[in-house]
Amino acid sequence: MQNASGPVLYYTDEVIDHFSQPRNVGELPREDTDGYACIGDPGCGDEMKLWIGVRDGIIGKIAFKSYGCPGAIATSSMLTELAKGKAIEEAAAISDDDVINALGGIPENKKHCSLLGVQALQAALADYRARSAR
User: Fold this and answer.
1) What percent of the chain has pLDDT over 90?
2) Global confidence as pTM
3) Which domain holds residue 35?
4) Which of 12, 52, 73, 100 has the fewest beta carbons under 10 Å from its own?
5) Is residue 61 in a domain?
6) What b/e sequence results for 45-76 when a residue is b if at least 16 CB atoms lie within 10 Å of its CB, and e otherwise?
7) CATH no. for residue 41?
8) Quick one: average pLDDT of 110-134?
């Protein structure tokens, strides 16, 4: 048996499931959107758009569109699942590690993909707060 000469790219069953059947894909209509963000990673070309609908301090609706590798799509999908139904403060506390752990891990060289979702959520929450302050 020959040893691999370099990193092995391995996706968990959970990552494959969220990549092949992503949750909350699409966009919210303008009237349902209380926060929006578009985040990109120029280094790898990934981009994520995220919409949130908030009622009584709870993220009741969430949708995303993501352009990127399987890791970016899977982490975006999982991020929306983690944030949906959460109070604003709870959602704001979601970390990259939370997303990665919920997926059962992702390859080391794909961990930067998880940043997109969390950054997009933080930016959408900031947009929500700015809109609410008007």
Assistant:
1) 65
2) 0.86
3) 13-133
4) 12
5) yes
6) ebbbbbbbbbeeeebebbbbbbebebbbbbbb
7) 3.90.1010.10
8) 88
Catalytic residue among 14, 27, 32, 44: 44
Instruction: Let me know if 44 is a catalytic residue.
Output: yes
Residue-by-residue DSSP string for 93-134:
T--HHHHHHHTT---GGGHHHHHHHHHHHHHHHHHHHHHHH-
Tell the residue number behind the tokens 């604003």, with chain if given. 88
The top-scoring range by mean pLDDT among 23-27, 37-41, 99-103 is 23-27
Q: Indicate if 38 belongs to the active site.
A: no
Residue 48 lies in a domain: yes
Catalytic residue among 54, 62, 74, 113: 113
Strand pairing class (35-41; 58-67): unpaired
